[in-house]
Amino acid sequence: MATGRTHRPATRSRGIPEATVARLPLYLRALTALSERSVPTVSSEELAAAAGVNSAKLRKDFSYLGSYGTRGVGYDVEYLVYQISRELGLTQDWPVVIVGIGNLGAALANYGGFASRGFRVAALIDADPGLTGKPVAGIPVQHTDELEKIIKDNGVSIGVIATPAGAAQQVCDRLVAAGVTSILNFAPTVLSVPDGVDVRKVDLSIELQILAFHEQRKSGEETAAGDGALPAAVTPRDDSTDQGPDGDVPAVMPA
Ligand SMILES: NC(=O)c1ccc[n+]([C@@H]2O[C@H](COP(=O)([O-])OP(=O)(O)OC[C@H]3O[C@@H](n4cnc5c(N)ncnc54)[C@H](O)[C@@H]3O)[C@@H](O)[C@H]2O)c1
What we know:
disordered C terminus, alpha/beta, 15% strand, two-stranded antiparallel ribbon
């Protein structure tokens, strides 16, 4: 559920659009579930439904991979798993460091889903000397003094930041200077990075705010429907009557 942007052009150098890249993990998750059930082939419609994507978009996405499926048979599940994994760079092991081993960092360290997807937690790093040497998820926490050495020794290119917002930029700068080129940022702050460094931001509160917006809109529509009126989004506007008492235009949310 990563949100945010990567510092990359909209189309990757190999011609795969960034929006397609963002959907590949959705296909992979659906395909992995089919593979676990030993399903040999899948139609574009079935896979699109399982991934929550429109089937025409799926076919277009797969054409970038050179995968067109077989008419009447569909796509070979195992081969597509391999193709997408290869395209996403998941056929190799990616050592990851997590910086900031508080509530969130510890939860991430304990998350089994990283390893099963080829992301090995190589080290846990925290500035609190009281945590140094303490095992979290079986891995002893190391002090930030060791950050550069840890990155170099483990060949780490992906860093996860789970520190307070105030420390995140400084941690990011150190990670980048040490050779990290991809950052997953959980701290609620915008990070500045040089060209060539990808940042993805995860922010649950932003996701919740977007849901709140939709909830508000839905309840507005229900109220309007309950009143026997059309939902606000489709209520025809009558500019002669919808001015508020002091001339303000009432807040009607456009569709
Ligand atoms: N993205 C999300 O959806 C989401 C959800 C929860 C929390 N958060 C954010 O994640 C961060 C961590 O939250 P938490 O609840 O785990 O906080 P926490 O206070 O439990 O843990 C923060 C840890 O960072 C360490 N730290 C502080 N400065 C550091 C530095 N310079 N270098 C290395 N480590 C340092 C602290 O010692 C502490 O162990 C916060 O920024 C919080 O806002 C984001």
